[in-house]
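task queued by scheduler; priority normal; single chain, no ligands, no partner chains; default sampling; output format set to C-alpha coordinates
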Amino acid sequence: MRKRILISIGLIFSIHLIASEESYAYETLAEDLSHPWGLAVIDEKNIIFTELSGNLRIIENGKLNPEPLSGVPEVLFAGQGGLSGIILDPSFNDNKRIYIAFSSPDAGKKTNTLEVVSATLNSGSISNVKTIFKASPSRRTAAHYGARMAFLDDGTLLITSGDGFNYREQAQYLDNHYGKIIRINTDGSIPQDNPFLSNTDALPEIWSYGHRNLQGITVVDGVVYENEHGPMGGDELNIAEPAKNYGWPAITYGKDYSGATISPFTEKEGMEQPIKYWVPSIAPSGMAYYDDTLFPNWTDSLLISALVPGDVRRLKVENSKITEEEILFSDLGRIRDVASSPDGTIILATDGPNGKLIRVIKK
Protein backbone atom coordinates (compact mmCIF):
# COMPACT_ATOMS: atom_id res chain seq x y z
CA MET A 1 0.00 0.00 0.00
CA ARG A 2 1.42 3.36 -1.00
CA LYS A 3 1.44 6.38 1.24
CA ARG A 4 -0.57 9.35 0.06
CA ILE A 5 0.56 12.91 0.71
CA LEU A 6 -1.94 15.71 1.10
CA ILE A 7 -0.74 19.30 0.72
CA SER A 8 -1.92 22.88 0.44
CA ILE A 9 0.16 25.31 -1.61
CA GLY A 10 -0.90 28.60 -3.15
CA LEU A 11 -4.38 29.98 -2.50
CA ILE A 12 -5.44 29.82 1.13
CA PHE A 13 -8.56 27.84 1.91
CA SER A 14 -9.56 24.88 4.02
CA ILE A 15 -8.22 21.60 2.66
CA HIS A 16 -10.07 18.52 3.84
CA LEU A 17 -7.46 15.96 4.90
CA ILE A 18 -8.64 12.42 4.23
CA ALA A 19 -7.27 9.38 6.01
CA SER A 20 -8.22 6.57 3.66
CA GLU A 21 -5.76 5.10 1.18
CA GLU A 22 -5.90 3.45 -2.22
CA SER A 23 -3.63 0.51 -3.01
CA TYR A 24 -2.36 0.33 -6.59
CA ALA A 25 0.35 -1.14 -8.76
CA TYR A 26 2.02 -0.23 -12.05
CA GLU A 27 1.85 -2.13 -15.31
CA THR A 28 4.20 -1.04 -18.11
CA LEU A 29 2.40 -0.86 -21.45
CA ALA A 30 5.32 0.47 -23.55
CA GLU A 31 8.87 1.64 -22.93
CA ASP A 32 11.87 3.15 -24.72
CA LEU A 33 9.55 5.75 -26.22
CA SER A 34 10.77 8.99 -27.78
CA HIS A 35 9.30 11.78 -25.65
CA PRO A 36 5.69 10.54 -25.31
CA TRP A 37 3.46 13.60 -25.00
CA GLY A 38 -0.29 13.17 -25.63
CA LEU A 39 -2.64 10.27 -24.89
CA ALA A 40 -6.00 9.35 -26.38
CA VAL A 41 -7.62 6.23 -24.92
CA ILE A 42 -9.81 4.42 -27.44
CA ASP A 43 -10.81 1.61 -25.09
CA GLU A 44 -9.28 -0.66 -22.45
CA LYS A 45 -6.81 -2.25 -24.86
CA ASN A 46 -6.25 0.41 -27.50
CA ILE A 47 -4.45 3.73 -26.98
CA ILE A 48 -3.16 6.18 -29.56
CA PHE A 49 -0.40 8.56 -28.49
CA THR A 50 2.10 11.07 -29.80
CA GLU A 51 5.86 11.17 -29.48
CA LEU A 52 7.14 14.74 -29.51
CA SER A 53 9.85 13.71 -31.99
CA GLY A 54 7.15 13.31 -34.64
CA ASN A 55 5.77 9.78 -34.41
CA LEU A 56 2.15 8.83 -33.95
CA ARG A 57 2.02 5.48 -32.13
CA ILE A 58 -0.68 3.02 -31.16
CA ILE A 59 -1.16 0.28 -28.62
CA GLU A 60 -3.42 -2.34 -30.23
CA ASN A 61 -5.03 -5.12 -28.22
CA GLY A 62 -2.72 -4.32 -25.33
CA LYS A 63 0.54 -4.39 -27.32
CA LEU A 64 2.59 -1.57 -28.83
CA ASN A 65 2.68 -1.63 -32.62
CA PRO A 66 6.42 -1.36 -33.35
CA GLU A 67 5.77 0.79 -36.42
CA PRO A 68 4.58 4.40 -36.18
CA LEU A 69 1.43 5.32 -38.08
CA SER A 70 2.13 6.82 -41.50
CA GLY A 71 0.55 9.96 -42.95
CA VAL A 72 1.61 12.39 -40.20
CA PRO A 73 2.38 15.92 -41.49
CA GLU A 74 5.86 17.47 -41.23
CA VAL A 75 6.59 18.39 -37.62
CA LEU A 76 9.16 20.78 -36.16
CA PHE A 77 10.89 18.84 -33.35
CA ALA A 78 12.90 21.49 -31.51
CA GLY A 79 12.88 22.93 -28.00
CA GLN A 80 9.36 22.34 -26.68
CA GLY A 81 7.97 21.82 -30.15
CA GLY A 82 6.93 18.60 -31.81
CA LEU A 83 3.96 16.28 -32.25
CA SER A 84 1.93 17.15 -29.20
CA GLY A 85 -1.77 17.07 -28.35
CA ILE A 86 -4.21 14.43 -29.54
CA ILE A 87 -7.94 13.92 -28.99
CA LEU A 88 -10.63 11.64 -30.35
CA ASP A 89 -13.73 13.00 -32.06
CA PRO A 90 -16.86 12.68 -29.85
CA SER A 91 -18.22 10.34 -32.56
CA PHE A 92 -14.94 8.46 -32.99
CA ASN A 93 -16.56 5.02 -32.83
CA ASP A 94 -18.49 5.91 -35.99
CA ASN A 95 -16.15 8.20 -37.93
CA LYS A 96 -12.63 7.29 -36.66
CA ARG A 97 -11.68 10.95 -36.64
CA ILE A 98 -8.82 12.26 -34.53
CA TYR A 99 -7.32 15.72 -34.01
CA ILE A 100 -3.60 16.35 -33.61
CA ALA A 101 -1.81 19.54 -32.49
CA PHE A 102 1.85 20.12 -33.34
CA SER A 103 4.48 22.71 -34.14
CA SER A 104 4.82 23.08 -37.90
CA PRO A 105 7.69 24.77 -39.74
CA ASP A 106 6.93 27.59 -42.16
CA ALA A 107 8.47 27.72 -45.63
CA GLY A 108 12.18 28.32 -45.22
CA LYS A 109 11.93 26.94 -41.66
CA LYS A 110 13.00 30.19 -40.02
CA THR A 111 9.63 30.53 -38.30
CA ASN A 112 7.02 28.10 -37.09
CA THR A 113 3.59 27.96 -35.54
CA LEU A 114 1.02 25.80 -33.76
CA GLU A 115 -1.09 23.78 -36.19
CA VAL A 116 -4.08 21.49 -35.64
CA VAL A 117 -5.24 18.90 -38.15
CA SER A 118 -8.13 16.48 -38.34
CA ALA A 119 -7.52 13.01 -39.73
CA THR A 120 -9.06 9.57 -40.14
CA LEU A 121 -7.44 6.72 -38.22
CA ASN A 122 -6.86 3.61 -40.33
CA SER A 123 -4.95 0.42 -39.76
CA GLY A 124 -1.30 1.54 -39.77
CA SER A 125 -1.91 5.06 -41.01
CA ILE A 126 -3.92 8.26 -40.89
CA SER A 127 -5.61 9.76 -43.95
CA ASN A 128 -7.85 12.67 -44.97
CA VAL A 129 -5.50 15.01 -43.10
CA LYS A 130 -6.91 18.55 -43.06
CA THR A 131 -5.58 21.67 -41.35
CA ILE A 132 -8.35 23.19 -39.24
CA PHE A 133 -6.33 25.76 -37.28
CA LYS A 134 -3.01 27.55 -37.65
CA ALA A 135 -1.88 30.07 -35.04
CA SER A 136 -0.98 33.54 -36.26
CA PRO A 137 1.44 35.20 -36.35
CA SER A 138 4.27 32.68 -36.57
CA ARG A 139 7.10 32.75 -34.06
CA ARG A 140 10.87 32.39 -34.08
CA THR A 141 10.88 30.57 -30.76
CA ALA A 142 10.33 26.86 -30.18
CA ALA A 143 8.56 27.19 -26.84
CA HIS A 144 5.15 27.62 -25.20
CA TYR A 145 2.83 26.14 -27.80
CA GLY A 146 0.02 25.01 -25.52
CA ALA A 147 -1.25 22.34 -27.96
CA ARG A 148 -3.89 20.69 -25.75
CA MET A 149 -7.50 20.19 -26.83
CA ALA A 150 -10.92 19.48 -25.36
CA PHE A 151 -14.47 19.29 -26.67
CA LEU A 152 -17.31 21.35 -25.30
CA ASP A 153 -20.68 19.67 -24.92
CA ASP A 154 -21.92 21.31 -28.14
CA GLY A 155 -19.21 19.55 -30.17
CA THR A 156 -16.98 22.59 -30.69
CA LEU A 157 -13.25 22.19 -30.15
CA LEU A 158 -11.15 24.16 -27.68
CA ILE A 159 -7.43 24.51 -28.46
CA THR A 160 -4.83 25.94 -26.09
CA SER A 161 -2.33 28.28 -27.76
CA GLY A 162 0.68 29.34 -25.68
CA ASP A 163 2.36 32.72 -25.54
CA GLY A 164 5.49 31.73 -27.48
CA PHE A 165 7.72 32.68 -24.52
CA ASN A 166 9.17 35.82 -26.14
CA TYR A 167 5.74 37.20 -27.04
CA ARG A 168 4.09 37.30 -23.64
CA GLU A 169 2.80 40.87 -23.91
CA GLN A 170 0.72 39.75 -26.90
CA ALA A 171 -1.40 37.56 -24.61
CA GLN A 172 -3.29 40.73 -23.62
CA TYR A 173 -4.22 41.64 -27.20
CA LEU A 174 -6.95 40.08 -29.32
CA ASP A 175 -5.33 40.50 -32.75
CA ASN A 176 -3.14 37.40 -32.37
CA HIS A 177 -3.25 33.83 -31.04
CA TYR A 178 -0.53 34.11 -28.39
CA GLY A 179 -1.73 33.10 -24.92
CA LYS A 180 -5.28 32.23 -25.94
CA ILE A 181 -7.89 29.50 -25.84
CA ILE A 182 -9.29 29.02 -29.34
CA ARG A 183 -12.78 27.71 -30.13
CA ILE A 184 -13.62 26.35 -33.58
CA ASN A 185 -15.90 23.85 -35.25
CA THR A 186 -14.27 20.58 -36.25
CA ASP A 187 -14.17 21.65 -39.90
CA GLY A 188 -12.18 24.74 -38.93
CA SER A 189 -15.07 27.19 -39.23
CA ILE A 190 -15.92 29.74 -36.54
CA PRO A 191 -18.87 29.14 -34.19
CA GLN A 192 -21.34 31.96 -34.55
CA ASP A 193 -21.63 32.45 -30.79
CA ASN A 194 -17.91 33.00 -30.17
CA PRO A 195 -17.46 35.93 -27.76
CA PHE A 196 -15.46 38.35 -29.93
CA LEU A 197 -17.26 38.05 -33.27
CA SER A 198 -18.55 41.62 -33.07
CA ASN A 199 -15.13 43.03 -32.15
CA THR A 200 -13.47 44.13 -35.38
CA ASP A 201 -10.08 44.30 -33.62
CA ALA A 202 -10.25 40.67 -32.47
CA LEU A 203 -9.62 37.34 -34.19
CA PRO A 204 -13.00 35.60 -34.23
CA GLU A 205 -11.75 32.19 -33.07
CA ILE A 206 -10.49 33.54 -29.72
CA TRP A 207 -12.50 32.26 -26.74
CA SER A 208 -10.42 33.53 -23.77
CA TYR A 209 -7.10 35.33 -23.37
CA GLY A 210 -4.34 36.40 -21.00
CA HIS A 211 -2.88 32.90 -20.69
CA ARG A 212 0.76 31.80 -20.59
CA ASN A 213 1.51 28.18 -21.57
CA LEU A 214 -1.64 26.10 -21.20
CA GLN A 215 -0.70 22.44 -20.78
CA GLY A 216 -3.93 20.80 -19.68
CA ILE A 217 -7.60 21.32 -20.45
CA THR A 218 -10.70 19.27 -19.68
CA VAL A 219 -14.46 19.83 -19.58
CA VAL A 220 -16.49 18.53 -16.63
CA ASP A 221 -20.28 18.99 -16.68
CA GLY A 222 -19.86 22.00 -18.93
CA VAL A 223 -17.12 23.58 -16.78
CA VAL A 224 -13.79 24.15 -18.52
CA TYR A 225 -10.71 23.59 -16.36
CA GLU A 226 -7.29 24.55 -17.70
CA ASN A 227 -3.83 24.49 -16.17
CA GLU A 228 -0.87 26.53 -17.29
CA HIS A 229 2.79 27.02 -16.48
CA GLY A 230 3.71 30.15 -14.61
CA PRO A 231 7.25 31.48 -14.98
CA MET A 232 9.33 30.77 -11.82
CA GLY A 233 6.37 29.99 -9.58
CA GLY A 234 2.76 30.86 -10.24
CA ASP A 235 1.54 27.76 -12.09
CA GLU A 236 -2.25 28.02 -12.30
CA LEU A 237 -5.45 26.03 -12.40
CA ASN A 238 -8.27 28.12 -13.84
CA ILE A 239 -11.94 27.76 -14.61
CA ALA A 240 -11.96 29.16 -18.14
CA GLU A 241 -14.95 31.05 -19.47
CA PRO A 242 -15.60 32.84 -22.77
CA ALA A 243 -14.37 36.43 -23.18
CA LYS A 244 -12.54 36.35 -19.84
CA ASN A 245 -9.02 37.75 -19.36
CA TYR A 246 -6.74 35.57 -17.20
CA GLY A 247 -4.18 38.28 -16.65
CA TRP A 248 -0.85 37.12 -18.02
CA PRO A 249 1.56 38.92 -17.89
CA ALA A 250 -0.17 41.88 -16.22
CA ILE A 251 -0.79 39.79 -13.10
CA THR A 252 1.13 36.74 -11.93
CA TYR A 253 2.15 34.88 -8.78
CA GLY A 254 5.56 34.07 -10.30
CA LYS A 255 8.87 35.75 -11.00
CA ASP A 256 10.96 35.83 -14.15
CA TYR A 257 13.62 33.12 -14.45
CA SER A 258 16.27 35.73 -13.68
CA GLY A 259 14.49 36.53 -10.43
CA ALA A 260 13.25 39.84 -11.82
CA THR A 261 9.69 41.01 -11.24
CA ILE A 262 7.39 40.46 -14.22
CA SER A 263 4.53 42.37 -12.62
CA PRO A 264 4.12 43.79 -9.12
CA PHE A 265 0.44 42.81 -9.26
CA THR A 266 -1.24 39.52 -8.46
CA GLU A 267 -4.72 40.85 -9.19
CA LYS A 268 -6.38 43.59 -11.19
CA GLU A 269 -9.94 44.55 -11.93
CA GLY A 270 -11.28 42.76 -14.99
CA MET A 271 -8.76 39.92 -14.74
CA GLU A 272 -9.61 36.47 -13.45
CA GLN A 273 -8.00 34.73 -10.48
CA PRO A 274 -6.91 31.09 -10.60
CA ILE A 275 -8.77 28.69 -8.33
CA LYS A 276 -5.35 27.30 -7.44
CA TYR A 277 -1.74 28.35 -7.91
CA TRP A 278 1.55 26.72 -7.01
CA VAL A 279 4.65 28.42 -5.63
CA PRO A 280 7.16 26.92 -6.22
CA SER A 281 6.20 25.55 -9.61
CA ILE A 282 5.13 21.96 -10.22
CA ALA A 283 5.16 22.37 -14.04
CA PRO A 284 1.66 20.99 -14.69
CA SER A 285 1.25 19.07 -17.93
CA GLY A 286 -1.76 16.96 -18.91
CA MET A 287 -5.09 16.81 -17.12
CA ALA A 288 -7.99 14.36 -16.91
CA TYR A 289 -11.15 13.95 -14.87
CA TYR A 290 -11.53 10.69 -12.99
CA ASP A 291 -15.18 9.67 -12.55
CA ASP A 292 -14.81 5.91 -12.27
CA THR A 293 -15.07 3.81 -9.08
CA LEU A 294 -12.13 1.39 -9.39
CA PHE A 295 -10.30 3.78 -7.05
CA PRO A 296 -13.28 5.12 -5.07
CA ASN A 297 -11.29 7.67 -3.05
CA TRP A 298 -10.28 9.33 -6.30
CA THR A 299 -13.74 9.44 -7.86
CA ASP A 300 -14.85 12.86 -9.13
CA SER A 301 -11.36 14.36 -9.02
CA LEU A 302 -9.14 16.25 -11.43
CA LEU A 303 -5.85 14.50 -12.13
CA ILE A 304 -3.02 16.81 -13.20
CA SER A 305 0.27 15.32 -14.33
CA ALA A 306 3.33 17.33 -13.34
CA LEU A 307 6.98 17.51 -14.36
CA VAL A 308 8.69 19.00 -11.27
CA PRO A 309 9.76 16.95 -9.50
CA GLY A 310 7.32 14.54 -11.16
CA ASP A 311 3.96 13.25 -9.92
CA VAL A 312 0.20 13.53 -10.39
CA ARG A 313 -1.86 15.99 -8.36
CA ARG A 314 -5.36 14.82 -7.46
CA LEU A 315 -7.64 17.78 -6.80
CA LYS A 316 -11.19 17.76 -5.52
CA VAL A 317 -13.14 20.83 -6.65
CA GLU A 318 -16.31 21.95 -4.86
CA ASN A 319 -18.02 25.26 -5.62
CA SER A 320 -14.98 26.46 -7.55
CA LYS A 321 -12.62 25.80 -4.62
CA ILE A 322 -10.07 23.07 -4.07
CA THR A 323 -11.03 21.02 -1.02
CA GLU A 324 -8.45 18.24 -1.38
CA GLU A 325 -5.01 18.05 -2.93
CA GLU A 326 -3.07 14.81 -2.98
CA ILE A 327 0.26 13.81 -4.51
CA LEU A 328 0.17 10.50 -6.38
CA PHE A 329 2.70 8.42 -8.35
CA SER A 330 5.72 10.43 -7.21
CA ASP A 331 8.12 7.52 -7.82
CA LEU A 332 7.95 7.63 -11.63
CA GLY A 333 9.79 10.86 -12.44
CA ARG A 334 8.42 13.53 -14.78
CA ILE A 335 4.90 12.71 -15.95
CA ARG A 336 3.83 14.33 -19.22
CA ASP A 337 0.22 13.20 -19.54
CA VAL A 338 -2.54 11.38 -17.69
CA ALA A 339 -5.74 9.77 -18.95
CA SER A 340 -8.55 7.63 -17.58
CA SER A 341 -9.44 4.30 -19.19
CA PRO A 342 -13.01 2.96 -19.45
CA ASP A 343 -12.08 0.09 -17.11
CA GLY A 344 -11.24 2.58 -14.33
CA THR A 345 -7.48 2.24 -14.61
CA ILE A 346 -5.29 5.30 -15.15
CA ILE A 347 -2.80 5.71 -18.00
CA LEU A 348 0.38 7.75 -17.49
CA ALA A 349 3.01 8.92 -19.98
CA THR A 350 6.44 9.54 -18.46
CA ASP A 351 8.54 12.26 -20.03
CA GLY A 352 11.79 12.17 -21.94
CA PRO A 353 13.83 10.25 -24.54
CA ASN A 354 13.22 6.92 -22.76
CA GLY A 355 9.60 7.49 -21.84
CA LYS A 356 7.05 4.89 -20.85
CA LEU A 357 3.31 4.36 -20.94
CA ILE A 358 2.17 2.97 -17.59
CA ARG A 359 -1.20 1.68 -16.47
CA VAL A 360 -2.17 2.17 -12.83
CA ILE A 361 -4.14 -0.88 -11.71
CA LYS A 362 -5.87 -1.93 -8.51
CA LYS A 363 -3.51 -3.84 -6.23
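post-processing summary
- The helical segments are 92-95.
- The chain is about 0% helix and 45% strand.
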